[in-house]
Design a protein that fits this description.
2 copies of one chain form a homodimer. Chain A has 354 residues and is an alpha/beta fold. Chain A is built from 11 helices and 18 strands.
Amino acid sequence: MVEIMNNYCIIMAGGIGSRFWPLSKDNYPKQFLDILGTGKSFIRATYERFSPVVPDENFLVVTNKAYKALVLEHLPMLREDQVLCEPARRNTAPCIAYAAYHIQSRCKDANIVVTPSDALVLDNREFERIIRLGFDFLSHNTNALMTIGIKPSRPETGYGYIQVPKNGTQEAVRKVDMFKEKPNYETAVKFVEEGNYFWNSGIFIWTLDGIMNAIETYLPDIKNVFDKGIYNFGTPEEQDFINDHFTDCPNISIDYGVMEKSPNTYTIPADFGWSDIGTWGSLYTHVSKDEQGNAVRGKVVTVDNHNCVINIEDGTEAVVQGLDDYLVAYRDKSLLVCRLHDEQQIKVWIEGLK
Amino acid sequence: MVEIMNNYCIIMAGGIGSRFWPLSKDNYPKQFLDILGTGKSFIRATYERFSPVVPDENFLVVTNKAYKALVLEHLPMLREDQVLCEPARRNTAPCIAYAAYHIQSRCKDANIVVTPSDALVLDNREFERIIRLGFDFLSHNTNALMTIGIKPSRPETGYGYIQVPKNGTQEAVRKVDMFKEKPNYETAVKFVEEGNYFWNSGIFIWTLDGIMNAIETYLPDIKNVFDKGIYNFGTPEEQDFINDHFTDCPNISIDYGVMEKSPNTYTIPADFGWSDIGTWGSLYTHVSKDEQGNAVRGKVVTVDNHNCVINIEDGTEAVVQGLDDYLVAYRDKSLLVCRLHDEQQIKVWIEGLK
């Protein structure tokens, strides 16, 4: 097992998450919320999940500068310079490259885990085991680009899938055959039945060398941008350089830009109770319900409702009656009442308020 | 036509009105709301409706002391001593007697109109004509106890009715045959068909002598209470006397206590577009709707809703989708979502919040 002092964690926390409107908003996105009522925001829970294997000083949070104060509020153990501020959103590849160049200025032998900031994990112990397993694998496979692959529990059409060969099912780390975009329902059913497909969690493990080599090979445009400021990273000039040049990066995901192209991709099949809680519906499956199947949070009198999600902010009270399969959410002077099955339209509807 | 300087108006404004929860609450009852979005509260509109026939200094508002400041805020032309404060609710008879004793200390020849503070009138000019007609009638009929009777536009079961003889339909002021309690639906249909029944508006017109004589005859218990302080009315001691003795009055309505017993009752049939807006449903019938039949007030995106009442306080925004015949109301940290047809249960439901 490697020493943890070289382990780095990049938390990607730039999302704006309008899908949970009105709980999440531009000025308070999902990663800072405690939607599940656990007492911890998603970003806080993410930090705690990695802290057994990553020293506090090796966490980096990449976010928009608008959220820097929120990040430090939720993660007060971080120094200010551990919050890397993107001046604009450019998807995951530039975000990861930014953090990798920053790490390069501090530690050439870094092992890196990259994670979203707004997912749910139920079994932290198993999660830690999987992450350690990934770091261990790197000591013999410096150029491996690993993804955590989640054993699918249902034919989910909202996630990308990772295909591995049908043989070799005993191995803890599997070579990837192919990354698959979000499938339609029939394809998702097939994926689950065939057994050699996993959900793409968006959690990556690699060495600094591994990801820098991949960026050089597959994302030369991004390498060119950051190489211009190579001596600024890790200095007080870093932020100015980023502010001036980050937006020159193409908007591209690490999946599309690197993982789908590299021959060095691996996945670690895992089963630690994971969800990206990307929708109210996925939230519904993860919280306790009353006898009528309602997931209720807040001071609410519920009368004759069934299978509803009702989420009312503290300090506000509600009476809700006569709804089946509806979502009722109130926060920060904004109210949403809609059919749960139509929630994917929330983004469209809220445009009407602008 | 009598001079208006002897005309007094008693506005009864002690109601707590939980039927419009969450818009109306104990600390902000319906009479102070602008539910219809007219720019005027009910109590303000009530005052303005009477002001052509009653001098400002002859208005009296009877309310709970908790609402005194609100009354003066909505009616800043009143002096403090024009707001009579009941220490507790004792229905309309003690309320009216209190105000009558107060008026007696100021003007022995008063003509009095008594009105609720929370009804809607669409045609103020016709309203004024009717009230003047009532005052005129008093000059020849000092002991007449008049009620404004509203020509029924539908078989409403939420109002009391006033029966007049079938003959004499040309008279502007009709002798009352009988006051009828709220009927069931079949009876209400019959009342409307027969044509000699009117809704009891709760607006009364009488002389000071007329109502004092009636109180003496039919409500001696109430007379006894107020006679004890007869020399306090109109003095700085009035409020102390009321605080000490008002609750000795029996809880009884003026309809039951006087109108149903006196042989001197009359009604003036009127048709000035009246509603007591006692329910969300009655509100719905009086406001403009969008093409899908939704009555919407506030900053609301409505998607695929039909025949809903949606009422969101200023400063708050809402997206409401997929509801038919529902009520969605938000005010002052309280939310209600329920079927419009079940709104009579609101009182019961909100008990659950306590």
